[in-house]
Amino acid sequence: MVYRIIAYLVSAFVACLTVLYLRQRSLQQQVEQLRACVDRLADSSGHPEYRTDYIDEILRNELTLRKQSGQDAEAVKRLREQTGWSLLEAKRYIDRL
């Protein structure tokens, strides 16, 4: 009897995790669509500074200095704070500097 209850609870937990995962993926796709829309609007209006991937010159210089001084992790952290990018996106950007 106890094993059935445990099995039921585990099944319910797995089902909840699956639903949450699917919802997270759906929201992530919506965010990507919105980003693409904002980028298209910024491009068509002639205002690249409104793109979601825009980095102004001041921030780019700060990130470059941090990377040159061996503070890659701090540069990634600063970029994420300013842009809301994921860790992977920010790391890739800093690696390309």
**Total beta-strand segments:** 0
Through-space gap between termini: 61 Å
Average pLDDT figure: 94
Please indicate the percent range of residues in DSSP E strands (runs of 2 or more). under 5%
Tell me roughly what share of residues is in helical segments.
Answer: over 70%
Q: How many DSSP H or I helices?
A: 4
SSE ordering: HHHH
Classification by helices and strands: mainly alpha
| Shape, per Cα inertia axes | elongated
The profile of the biggest β sheet is: none
Please mark out the parts with pLDDT under 50 across 5 or more consecutive residues, or reply none: none
Total count of domains? 2
- Calculate Rg over CA atoms: 21 Å
Detailed description of the structure:
The longest helix has 44 residues. The protein has 2 domains: 51 residues; 43 residues. Helix content is 80%, strand content 0%. The model has no long low-confidence stretch (mean pLDDT 94). With 97 residues, it is mainly alpha-helical. Helix 2 runs antiparallel to helix 3 and helix 3 crosses helix 4.
What topology does this entry show?
Elements: H1 2-45, H2 57-68, H3 72-83, H4 87-96
Which characteristics define this entry?
mainly alpha; 2 domains
In short, what is this structure?
The protein has 97 residues and is mainly α. 80% of the residues lie in helices and 0% in strands.
